[in-house]
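Recall the central idea of this unit: under ordinary conditions, the amino acid sequence of a chain determines the structure it adopts. In this exercise we apply that idea directly, starting from the sequence alone.
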Amino acid sequence: MLLVFTLVSWLLLFAYRPYGCTGRGLDKGGIGAEEGKEHKAVEATDNADHLKSNRLLGALPVEEFEHLRPHLETITLEVKDFLYERDVPIEHVYFPIDCVTSVMAQMKDGRMVEVGTIGKEGMDGLPVFLGAQTAPLTSFCQVPGDAARMAADALRSEVGPGDRLHELLRRFTEATLVFAAQSSACNRLHSVEQRCSRWILHTHDRVGKDEFHLTQEFLSQMLGVRRASVSEVASALQGEGLISYWRGNLRILDRSGLEAVACECHGVITKEFDRLLDSGA
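Accordingly, the structure predicted from this sequence is:
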């Protein structure tokens, strides 16, 4: 498992090099997700149903979900709340419900670039599942919303081979590798406009609603380009009537049109996640 984690980390870092991005390190005005937050035990049926909006938790047999239920709690994440930091022991894993988290790689000079996003299709904290205590990456909340969290020790002790969640996380790992590999090719072969459209579509898929908070700072970190380039692309997409964008709030106006602008990578990645997480092929 550790070998797999090393491969995932290497591929992510290779796939998302900054390409001259001048953005500096993340403003650490955010707080750790465990600090000053209200956590709710998963007791009420409606709360449990809310958690099942996460694709992994929703696919669990009733018996397995009930077994894990005492180890789950809901938490509301705000923008830039940290889930874990580079080379610091990971204490919890998170199953996003309607939020989106970002995994970031930081260079020696402080520049940061996003190497992955995780929404309701998966779990943030994959290094724990792969046997690692820490990671050379940082994760924080990008789009605010709710998530279910579980202590890393609970995941290690309660989820093992033969469990449905273990199998789903294995498939999620494979889908993440495909995501990283396809993104590596995308970053080298496709235009900023195509890549930006793809990332907006991925965020739309994860949030599940047409309007969400997404700043130009985050978009530039996603793409590894300067904010000026993001501003130009956002203005062009808005001029074509595909999105509206105002003070960090983005609204999808024409998803089909946005898909036409985006490269084929969005479809390839989406199809692979559906194949692995739905059919189990």
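The two ends are 21 Å apart (CA to CA).
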